[in-house]
């Protein structure tokens, strides 16, 4: 599976009716990519188009529809793309191959093989606790501020964050915010708690500060005790490598 970082995006344009040995060329390309262990590839059929032959092909005319362009796209590491390109170059006798630099922001899979249950391991150490206090009604570009902060923390690879919604509180303005059965306050206090290393919290604190107009950020030294399965430790090591 691809990892976050620099990568290459390859786009191949061929005609739907172009053959390769006993089948369509686009199917042969997809089969080749799958056998070579490419993370994933997609073939899309166009509604209309023209190429070097200067003939417009469209689904409106049955005869011309057989010659519609097909676009095949996949993303892989630069080393993998260099390995695949010579064969793809030979396969695409009539078409176009394009390679672009790209960046993988997120690469994940919901499917994982079943793993044998492992005993817990206890991990202890020092860490930092960052608590962010703000109002439930605070906004950031049209969405609740606390949701936007959690999204930002996740994108910056913070281990975890928890949002707590208060039932009673007041801030520096002296206004009391309270929830009762007859009326729901629209600006109840919200606290976001984040536990991570001092280096990671120092890295993200400036980004969080820029998002908050009226709030409070508090840092504390904490001792952590974490119970984890041994296979979870292996997964964490693989993800960080």
Structural class: alpha+beta
| Unreliable sequence segments | 60-65, 179-184
The neighbouring-strand order within the major sheet is 4-7-1-8
Helical stretch tally? 6
Report the mean per-residue pLDDT as an integer: 79
Largest sheet: 4 strands, antiparallel
Which percent bin holds the helix content? 25-40%
| Quaternary structure annotation | single chain
Shape: elongated
Span between termini = 13 Å
By DSSP, the count of extended strands is: 16
SSE string? EEEHEEEHEHEEEEHEEEEHEH
Radius of gyration: 27 Å
Hey, roughly how much beta strand do the residues contain? 35-45%
Describe the overall structure.
This protein has six helices and 16 strands. The chain is α+β, with helices and mostly antiparallel strands. Strands 4-7-1-8 form a four-stranded antiparallel beta sheet, with helices on one face. Strands 12-15-9-16 form a four-stranded antiparallel beta sheet. Strand 5 (48-49) and strand 6 (57-58) form a beta hairpin. The longest helix has 14 residues, at 78-91. The chain starts with a strand and ends with a helix.
Topology:
Layout: E1 5-15, E2 19-20, E3 23-24, H1 25-35, E4 41-45, E5 48-49, E6 57-58, H2 62-65, E7 69-76, H3 78-91, E8 95-104, E9 120-135, E10 139-140, E11 143-144, H4 145-155, E12 161-165, E13 168-170, E14 176-178, E15 189-196, H5 198-211, E16 216-229, H6 230-240
Antiparallel strand pairs: 1-7, 1-8, 2-3, 4-7, 5-6, 9-15, 9-16, 10-11, 12-15, 13-14
């Amino acid at each position: 599976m691809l990892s976050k970082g620099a990568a290459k995006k390859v786009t191949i344009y061929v005609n739907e009716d172009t053959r390769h040995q006993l089948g369509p060329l686009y199917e042969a390309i997809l089969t080749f990519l799958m056998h070579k262990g490419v993370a994933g590839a997609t073939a899309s059929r166009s509604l209309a188009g023209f190429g070097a032959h200067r003939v417009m092909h469209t689904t409106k005319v049955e005869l011309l529809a057989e010659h519609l362009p097909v676009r095949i796209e996949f993303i892989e590491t630069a080393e993998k793309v260099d390995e695949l390109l010579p064969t793809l170059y030979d396969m695409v006798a009539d078409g176009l191959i394009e390679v672009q630099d790209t960046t993988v922001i997120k690469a994940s899979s919901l499917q994982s093989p079943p793993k044998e249950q492992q005993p817990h391991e206890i991990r202890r150490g020092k860490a930092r606790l960052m608590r962010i206090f703000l109002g439930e009604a605070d906004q950031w570009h049209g969405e609740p501020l606390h949701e936007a902060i959690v999204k930002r923390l996740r994108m910056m690879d913070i281990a975890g964050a928890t949002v707590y919604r208060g039932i009673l509180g007041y801030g520096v303005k002296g206004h009391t915010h309270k929830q009762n059965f007859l009326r729901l306050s629209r600006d109840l206090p919200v606290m976001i708690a984040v536990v991570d290393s001092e280096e990671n919290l120092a890295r993200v604190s400036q980004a969080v500060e820029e998002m908050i107009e009226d709030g409070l950020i508090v840092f504390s030294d904490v001792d952590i005790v974490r119970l984890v399965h041994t296979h979870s430790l292996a997964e964490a090591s693989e993800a960080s490598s």
